[in-house]
Design brief:
Blueprint lengths: L11 H16 L4 E5 L15 H6 L7 E5 L3 E5 L4 H7 L6 E4 L5 H8 L5 E4 L6 H13 L3 E4 L4 H5 L12 E2 L2 H4 L3 H12 L5 E4 L2 H8 L1 E2 L12 E5 L4 E4 L7 H6 L4 E4 L4 H7 L7 E3 L6 H9 L4 E3 L5 H5 L3 H28 L7 H13 L6 E2 L4 E4 L22 E7 L1 E3 L2 E2 L2 E7 L4 H18 L3 E2 L4 H13 L10 E3 L8 E6 L12 E4 L2 E4 L3 E4 L2 E5 L3 E2 L6 E3 L1 E3 L17 H18 L5 H10 L7
């Protein structure tokens, strides 16, 4: 299996290792250390060698930071992890802080006394982050310094090495555009402004060179750096042993392959007072920017030039996503049929369900990986937004409860991400009310029509309104971008309270409102959607975008309070279920097909 259920979270880790870290800080002349869950490549998916925050504290979330001072320490998490962090770290040693309520800089401002020397790893922070920390330290009379050796690495005696897995070609029929054309497009975009740009994130590099890797779990990424020059020539930096002959032949002739060790010398050779670099200071490591500046080059701030074109899926990528979702829908239907069959037996638990779902996906013969660890939350575990089941937390299903399952697959032609909330036994009135309000929000976003330049923040309200009407909300974004056999979380597009980027035709996003009753149950319904071509509506004046739903899987009608749905919402749900049955039923076993016919039958106004 791709997913394991070992319980890596252990508060004892902090009790043992934070004192060791404090001793190491003294050795390095430091009074404190700022650290983040990050690697030098700037991605969310990280290899074991980079999981320093987990190793030190026990916290296993996909995002977080910590500050370790001589007499105090804090760990910073977002709304997804406010419950999880309480269980995973020693809160006597580490004070959990909600990052939206107090940033790392704000905490430092209220904690530093003056005179301290605070260290950070320049490969794990960007210029923009360093600027914030430096400003705070200066205001408090403290000094921020670069750590030549990461102090966590210095005490991590069995530190894993960086992965050595091969980098493989991504075929043209799936990529839809040659790497040469992508390089030309990227270079043309900055050639009038800069001599070169530096790219760090694995999904940008995989997309740009039409390659894939397996260096991290749940995403087909290589760990590599790239430099693209204004003449569309490029350097690809990685461990040379990872590039088989097939991949070397696949790469465009204008690409020079180099080992990581050559990076400083090549940057120096490409730099100078008349050779400016365009850098995304929210992604590129501070260490890289420092190398370029030390070589005398001016810096021009701009976003990673791969982000927007990568997020706009071409026709081949969209067709691949549709095929992947069709395949994934078949697996999901078989899983939900199995779940309904097993639920009355009182033998189900979260691990059994997770294993079964992965087996159904694997039975397609195309599964390369899961796109993230399956969130399989029975009862109160469903209220933990990014819950990960382990052997220690595994919970049996209770009758008359809810089961939330958020999962996805990585297939060669696309990435999937789907959440369904399932009634186990008979749901009560509150469960049905909350589920129906979440469904109403999901439908409202699905049916949205919007002009060009509409940003995700402007649409986010649509999904929340049915919950707001009764004084409820959820603490995560409504939708994130999704890659094409790349990362399950992709920017810059999002539908959220921070979604400041305009949505464009070909963007793929999640649509996943939710509601979570702490200690009781959680509800989330998620489909993936893609932004459609803008067309003028009859009688309208502006070209208008909409959404096409990619996900094919029934929504549990046992949890719907039909009296809360209007005719338009009922119409959408019936049309969607009709499409699910029409596209999937012929390829399902007879018993699953009969189950699907029942699960997708039309509903009618109360």
């Amino acid at each position: 299996m791709f997913q394991d259920f070992s319980d890596t979270a252990n508060p004892d880790q902090g009790r043992l290792r934070i004192p060791l870290l404090r001793e190491q800080l003294k050795t390095q002349g430091l009074d404190g250390f700022i650290m983040s869950r990050a690697d030098e490549f700037g991605g969310e998916n990280m290899a074991p060698y980079a999981e320093r925050l987990e190793w030190l504290t026990g916290f296993t979330g996909s995002a977080g930071s910590a500050v370790i001072l001589e007499k105090s320490a804090a760990i910073f998490v977002d709304g997804r992890y406010t419950l999880q962090v309480q269980d995973q770290v020693d809160t006597k040693l580490l004070t959990p802080v909600a990052i939206l309520e107090k940033s790392v800089s704000q905490w430092l401002s209220g904690t530093l006394e003056g005179g301290e020397t605070i260290g950070f790893d320049p490969w794990l922070y960007t210029q923009s982050a360093v600027d914030r920390f430096r400003k705070t330290c200066e205001e408090k009379g403290a000094t921020l310094v670069v750590c030549e050796t990461n102090p966590v690495d210095a005490i991590w005696t069995d530190h894993p090495i960086r992965p050595q897995n091969p980098i493989v070609p991504h075929p043209m029929e799936l990529a839809g555009e040659p790497s040469e054309d992508k390089l030309g497009k990227i270079a043309k975009g900055f050639a009038s402004k800069a001599h070169a740009t530096f790219i760090t994130q694995g999904d940008s590099i995989a997309w740009l060179f039409n390659i894939r890797g397996s260096d991290v779990a749940c995403a087909p990424l290589p760990l590599a750096f790239a430099i693209v020059r204004a003449d569309a020539t490029a350097y690809l930096f990685t461990d040379l042993a990872k590039l088989p002959d097939e991949t070397r032949a696949h790469l465009p002739t204008q690409v020079t392959i180099a080992p990581f060790e050559d990076l400083p010398a090549i940057i120096a050779a490409l730099s100078g007072p008349d050779k400016s670099w365009m850098l995304d200071e929210t992604i590129v490591p501070f260490a890289i920017k420092t190398m370029i500046e030390d070589a005398g080059s001016p810096i021009i701030k701009a976003a990673d030039p791969c982000l927007k074109p990568k997020a706009i899926k071409n026709a081949a990528e969209l067709e691949g996503m549709r095929k992947a979702h069709h395949r994934d829908g078949l697996a999901m239907c078989q899983f939900l049929h199995w779940l309904d069959t097993m639920a009355p037996t009182d033998t189900l638990d979260e691990i059994a369900a997770t294993k079964a779902l992965e087996e159904f996906r694997a039975s397609t013969g195309c599964l390369k990986d899961i796109s993230f660890d399956t969130i399989a939350g029975a009862g109160p575990n469903g209220a933990i937004v990014h819950y990960r089941v382990t052997e220690a937390t595994n919970r049996k299903f209770d009758q008359n409860s809810l089961f939330l399952v958020d999962s996805g697959g990585q297939y060669p032609d696309g990435t999937t991400d789907i959440t369904r909330t399932i009634a186990i036994g008979t749901p009560d009135a509150e469960m049905k009310d909350r589920f129906t309000r979440v469904l109403k929000g999901m439908i409202a976003l699905t049916l949205a029509r919007f002009p060009a330049d509409t940003k995700g923040i402007q649409l986010d309200t649509l999904a929340r309104q049915p919950l707001w009407e009764v004084g409820l909300d959820y603490a995560h974004g409504t939708g994130h971008g999704v890659g094409s056999y790349l990362c399950c979380h992709e920017g810059p597009q999002s539908i959220s309270k921070r979604g400041g980027v305009a949505l464009e035709e070909g963007n793929v996003l999640s649509n996943e409102p939710g509601y979570y009753k702490t200690g009781a149950w959680g509800i989330r319904i998620e489909n993936l959607i893609t932004v459609t071509k803008a067309e003028t509506i009859a009688g309208g004046e502006l070209p208008i975008h909409g959404f096409e739903t990619l996900t094919l899987c029934p929504i549990d009608q046992r949890l719907i309070d039909v009296s809360l749905l209007d005719e338009r919402e009922i119409g959408w749900l019936n049309d969607y279920h009709e499409q699910v049955f029409a596209e999937l039923s012929a390829e399902l076993p007879e018993d699953v097909r009969a189950w699907l016919a029942q699960a997708t039958k039309p509903i009618h106004a109360a």
